[in-house]
Each structure stands twice: as structure tokens, then as C-alpha cells.
Specification:
This protein has 164 residues and is of the alpha/beta class. The protein contains five helices and five strands; from the N terminus they run H-E-H-E-H-E-H-E-E-H. It has a five-stranded parallel sheet, covered by helices on one side. The longest helix has 27 residues.
């Protein structure tokens, strides 16, 4: 009879130990989902407008994306080199980044081509869209690409008026 009591007490202690362990894990957050860390590939295709990258990162910080905590950036810079654009963009696609930010126009067109058939969104800036096939229209860019055109025809006309 003593043997049965001993086994029962060990079972109780084991149960108590398991409950304490589970409770500790719950309190410590063990098993809690870690927040997603977004990966953004940035292709700066012209050095003289590379400050766009800093502005983008600052804007993302204002939105609550803290570099190293919930967002990382892979910033690649080149000077109007089509082969480099393609190589860098193919790397971003292979790395399955969450977003590609790209400028200028030629790099934006290459980004559109590199991401066809994927769900990787492309955000372009400092790009001409008229006659480039970059977007379907200003209001409805289509596909996985959108951005900021520069300069738009309306801005160019205003500049010529001011110049005159």
C-alpha cells in the first residue's frame, strides 16, 4: 500500500511541475508570435538623387517601422547601369523581399519586369511614366506597381510658364 501512495505523490508532483512550467511559459511569452520583420529592397539608380532613400526611411520611421526591429533595408546603389539594375532586382526577387523601392525611370521599368509573376509590390519614384509602359494610368497603375512620377507633364508646363 505504501508503494501506491508513493507513486501517487510522484504523479501529483509531476502534475504540479507541469502546471508550473506551462504557467511560466505563458507568463514569459514563450510560444508567442514574434512580430513580422519586413524586408525592403531599395535600388538607387542615380547617386545625385540618393537622398530619396533617406526620405523614404524617415517616412517609414514616422509610420512606426523601426529599422532593426520590424523592418530591414537592403539598399543597393549604382549609377545608371542596366546590367546592375537587373542583377540587383533579381536578387531582391530571389530574396523574396516584401517591397521594392526603386528610382529612376529605367530602374523602375526593370523592376516591373523582374517582379512579373510575383506578388512583390514595387514603389517607384523619380520616374517618367508617359510612354514608358510603366503603369496603365496615373489613377489605376495596374499590377503590383505604383509610385510617384517626376516630372509630370502638368509640372513641366508650370515650370516652363514660370521660366518664361
Amino acid at each position: 500500500m505504501k508503494g501506491n501512495k508513493y507513486q501517487c505523490k510522484i504523479g501529483t508532483w509531476q502534475l504540479l511541475l507541469i502546471l508550473v512550467s506551462v504557467f511560466s511559459m505563458i507568463l514569459s511569452g514563450c510560444g508567442a508570435k514574434k512580430p513580422k520583420v519586413y524586408r525592403v529592397g531599395i535600388l538607387s539608380g542615380l547617386g545625385f538623387v540618393a537622398d530619396i532613400t533617406d526620405g523614404f526611411k524617415a517616412g517609414m520611421t514616422e509610420l512606426g517601422y523601426i529599422e532593426g526591429e520590424n523592418i530591414t533595408y537592403d539598399v543597393q546603389t549604382t549609377e545608371f547601369d542596366m546590367a546592375a539594375y537587373q542583377r540587383i532586382l533579381n536578387k531582391f526577387v530571389a530574396d523574396k523581399v516584401d517591397l521594392i523601392v526603386v528610382f529612376p525611370t529605367e530602374a523602375s521599368v526593370e523592376a516591373k519586369n523582374a517582379t512579373q509573376g510575383t506578388d512583390i509590390p514595387v514603389l517607384f519614384t523619380f520616374a517618367l511614366i508617359e510612354g514608358m509602359g510603366l503603369v496603365d494610368s496615373v489613377r489605376e497603375p495596374g499590377g503590383n506597381i505604383t509610385g510617384v512620377r517626376y516630372p509630370g507633364p502638368d509640372i513641366a508646363v508650370k515650370r516652363f510658364e514660370i521660366l518664361r
